[in-house]
Each structure stands twice: as C-alpha cells, then as structure tokens.
Prior knowledge:
3 helices, alpha+beta, 4 strands, 4-stranded antiparallel beta sheet, 33% helix
Amino acid sequence: MLLSSATLFAQTEQKLGDAFLKSVQEKNFSLLKPWLGKNTKNLQEKWKLVVENAYRKGFDIKAVKIKNVMTGEQVPNMPMKTIIAIYEYDGKEWDDLVLMITTEQKPKLVEIPLTSYMFKLDEERRGKNRVD
C-alpha cells in the first residue's frame, strides 16, 4: 500500500509539473487553478516572471518537454516540499524548474522560488538543483 501511495503521489507531482509548463507555454495562469491554494495573487506575480523568461528572444518555450519530476524532502517544520521538473531543451537536461508544494494527498502549489533562473539555460547552474 505504501508503494502504491508513493507512486500515486509521484504521478500527481508529474501532472503538476506538466500543468505548470503548459500554463507557461500557453500564457494561461488559469490552467493552474486545480493546483492553487490561498496565495494565488503572489503565485501569479511570480508566474508572470517565469513567463517573461520563457518568452525571451532566442528561447522556444514550445520546444520544452518535461522528462521527469524529482521530489525533495519535506521542509523542516513546514508542510511543504520541493519538486524539480527536469526538462530537455536543445539536447540538454535542465533542472531550473523548481516548485514548492504542500505535502497533502492532493498537493497544492505554494511557492515558485528561483524565478530568475527558470528557463535561463545557465550552464553554471545546470544540475545544481538536483544535487542540492
């Protein structure tokens, strides 16, 4: 039973990562509605920064595909954890798509940290989020 719960949670996190990417690709924040909790206004402002990164000249957000979603450990003394959506772009894997979610059975998006790094293809940072 524990294994099936872990698998179900991983599938849910993958769906959240996919929904986040799709919302950015389509410039449509409302696609995240099933994943949002109380701090929607703050999340939308941060999401707009991610969209700006994604639609800069020389980057094709439509070519981004999420390969898998990694789950971090629960933040000490807080009911949230990090997920990292590993995506492929231009033949390389990138790990700068980081989201904070609740630890509930149906997780909610609670924070979009590191917005200034998302989709920037910074070679010096590539792989660091996975390691950290």
